[in-house]
Amino acid sequence: MRKVLTSTICIAAAISLTACGSSASKPSNTQVATTALTQELIKQSASTAASPLKFNTTQAGCTATRVVSSVGEAKLQSYGLLDAKFHGTPKTLDEVTLSKADATAVVGAIIDCLGEATFTTDLSEAVTSSITGANTGTQRTCLQDKLTVAALKPMLISSLSGDKLAATHFYAGLLTCTRG
Question: Rounded to whole angstroms, how far apart are CA atoms 143 and 53?
Answer without folding.
Answer: 18
